[in-house]
Amino acid sequence: MNGLRMKKTLTVSLTMAVAAALMAQQHPKTIDDKALRDAGKTEATAREWITYGGNYAETRFSPLKQIDTSNVSRLGLVWSVETDSPAGGRPEATPLMSNGVIYTSLAWDVIVAVDARTGKMKWRWDPEIPRQHISQICCGPVNKGVALYKGKVYAGLLDGTVVALDQETGKVKWRIKDTFNDDTILTAAIRIVKGKVIVGSSGAEQAIRGYFSAYDAETGKRLWRFYTVPGDPSKPFEQPELAMAAKTWHGEWWKMGGGGTVWDSMTYDPALDLLYIGVGNGGPWYQQLRSPGGGDNLFLACILAVKPDTGKLVWYFQETPGDTWDFTSTQPMILADLTIDGKPRKVILHAPKNGFFYVLDRVTGEFIHGNKFVKRMTWASGLDAKGRPIENAGARYKKGPTIVSPGPQGAANWQAMSFSPITKLAYLPGQEISYLWNPVDATTWTYRAGGLNTGVVGFNGPFGRGGGPPDPNRNKAAYTLSPHEPAGAAKEPQANGGFLVAWDPAANKERWRVSDAGGIGGGGTVTTAGNLVFHGSTAYNAETGKKLWEVNLGGTYCNPITYELDGKQYVAILARGNPNNRLFVFALDGKAPIPPVSR
């Protein structure tokens, strides 16, 4: 081939490549069921971050490895953008990235689309939620994130509606009411499974009745709803499982609701066609108020496996029977395939608020093993052979002020755990924290619709936020009496503060721990094939826990993501509270300065 012909061939090839790139921009890739099933499995499908946990298993593992242990110290800011997040809230969302655009939700359900290359705002949508609507509803005007599917952006909102926006313009395609009273809000990240929008309720502190629902992604038509707490037993139950669940309750719990909201954890196994749901705490918190006489109170603090086409229950596993400590099971769960005791197992990994790390068979719900991941645990001494906690005497604080570890903020919370199929370790941000539990007087306490109904001094009377008349001795009881601790507490080491732990779920034990890592305050984690685990804006060697990179972004860290554009790997994270919440994007040799925190 002569030089002229070669030159013409190269020119034609280059022209065709440019044309193909332009056509790809004009015809963006569609996120469909196949894309969601394949998400994050290979380097090619991991170039985008198209669903909450990076993939259906929610491992938050990326096969990308351009950034690794040898060069992560060169990571620098490429761009950042102030999101103009409304005042009065904080960011909790995991951003998504597709077709070169980052999509995320902010405080008060504002949703934005940002150019992933430049940080330029593409569109911004504000649902204009009435500010007084959630003035007393836990836990602030937050949103965990959006979902992408077939050209639409989906979100659950604080006014109880589910919305579908046009992915290119941000214009509303449909919006429907999901909740049935003003006490119930939506803060969970939406998941899309088999063309269905899966959304869970929030607001258990109002003692409402929890549930999760499925909607047709195209039309918004409701397809089914699963109630996590039984209603009035004198009326027909909405689903057959509730007749069994009602036998584990006492009194007239349905007059308040019972709790059991579903405000975060959801995963899906396409091979088994099972949708896994984490269920929240009881409402009121103090069990003697909602279910006098005790009982397991199903399906509070459970993992549920249901069929996504019908919502039919396949199995359940309860982690905190008769919850009375706000020990939700809504913390992120992970699906993994492990070899345990020489046998291959399909498992669920879960580290809820109660401080135990559980490994369950995800086919059957069988408890395989579990162990505490906190140093100080006083509410229980361990788990029995079936995974039921062995409670310490006095932990239920029925006789007055009692210090219990962990506290209601949890040993873990919504900040994401991740799992590496390379190291076979889970990376969990947690915290050591205790709480002084002091129940209200059950003879004078009354339920108040629209207010916080925890039944615990410190969340009711002292702050004037519902639950009937305040305890006249609240200050003395809460602050000057000598509270007791549950039996066995003296044996537990004193500990406090945040940590990051690398947990071996097959061996049921810790591999390494960083005690000054900020814990849940440092945001969630993501791990990569570059042998890295990112915890907020810090990176560690995934094998050893050695810190390799860190930058201070000003606090309020969310769950990070990583993606690839134009052959370059990026790490993105929402950080900072109001008034200058920002989206930060990093890459190797980025040179942009970190904007100062304004006050």
Specify the biggest β-sheet. Answer: 5 strands, mixed
Overall mean pLDDT stands at 90
- Portion of residues within helices: under 10%
**Overall strand count:** 39
Strand content: 25-35%
The first-to-last residue Cα distance is: 67 Å
Q: Radius of gyration, Cα only, in angstroms?
A: 24 Å
- Count of discrete alpha- or pi-helical segments spanning 4 or more residues: 5
The geometry reads as globular
Structural class based on helices, strands and sheet pairing: mainly beta
The spatial strand order of the largest sheet comes to 1-33-34-35-36
Low-confidence stretches: 6-26, 460-480
How would you summarize the topology of this molecule?
Blueprint: H1 3-26, H2 33-38, E1 61-62, E2 75-82, E3 96-98, E4 101-105, E5 111-115, E6 121-125, E7 147-149, E8 152-156, E9 161-166, E10 172-177, E11 191-193, E12 196-200, E13 211-216, E14 222-227, H3 241-246, E15 258-259, E16 266-269, E17 274-278, E18 282-283, H4 287-290, E19 302-306, E20 313-318, E21 333-340, E22 343-350, E23 356-361, E24 367-372, E25 380-383, E26 389-391, E27 402-404, E28 418-420, E29 425-432, E30 435-437, H5 474-480, E31 497-504, E32 509-514, E33 525-528, E34 532-535, E35 538-541, E36 547-550, E37 561-565, E38 568-575, E39 582-588
Question: In short, what is this structure?
Answer:
The chain is mainly beta. Helix content is 8%, strand content 32%.
